[in-house]
Amino acid sequence: MALKISFRRIEMFKNIETGKIYDVIIVGGGPAGVTAGIYAARYALNAVLITKDKGGQMGEAGYVENYPGFKRILGPDLADKFYDHLSEYKVPIILDEVVNIKRTNGNLFVVETALGNQFKTKTVILALGVIRRKLGVPGEKEFSGKGVSYCAPCDAPLYKGKVVAVVGGGDSAASAALLLADYARKVYLVHRRDRLRAQPFYVRKLTIHPKIQFVLNSNVEEIGGTKTVEWIKIKETGEKIHVDGVFIEIGSDPPKEFFKRIGVETDEKGYVIVESDQSTSIPGIFAAGDCTTACNMFKQIITAAAQGAIAADSAYKYVIEKFGKK
Q: Which ranges of the chain have pLDDT less than 70?
């Protein structure tokens, strides 16, 4: 199941103006970025959203069961609804990657993208989310897309009636395992510790599921096969477990190098330090979502969305204060 967001809607804004000055440029297309876009539009800010992917990790999540209004919904479907909502406000969306942000001699910023575009803006909202960690073991890179996956909702239907492994012990791993169990005939959940760190709600579901088997105190040291994945090797025992696919869910990190490049202050782990109004160490740059210290390591769709709303409100107030009434 792939994310179903309409590419036609994106193409509408492919040739957007680069010479004008925007009130706010939102960097990132996850729940924080999309919510910031909605609120910016409601404040009548001249906004644009730049993202290299649509939906962020929400678009790759399994079943979401803790977002108010939806008892149970797949991450890609929820992302679809976010973008449907955003489209009502006609906020331009650019499929591109922001590679640098520089302050001009005045109070403006220049946002540079991988495609060579430059945009001028009065404020920036960083909503970049986090980057999935890799296992870093032999076979992971070689079999990427050939049995190694980082997106359960995208690839789960491919493993109907097959055997898969999920590597990880947090909420993302638990959600992935439960989703995969809807398709696969067996799911191994491999975790390096003696107990899962997922929410008790998830652990209870995993424990009683007849298709899911825990492999605890275990590290995957190699992924092997011929043309596609056929097995994983457990470091502690040397055992090779036959699987048709491996789903890596071992956490994530903020885009540290990018934050270092633009000069925004971060904590020791690389998360952007923000105040209660989502402001950063650089006046005019705000940040929201999982890439910030405000998430308190509690990376949830609802908290990211809330921070996106606050960031847009703060950007609006900044524009009024520095540049006058809209």
A: 1-18, 325-326
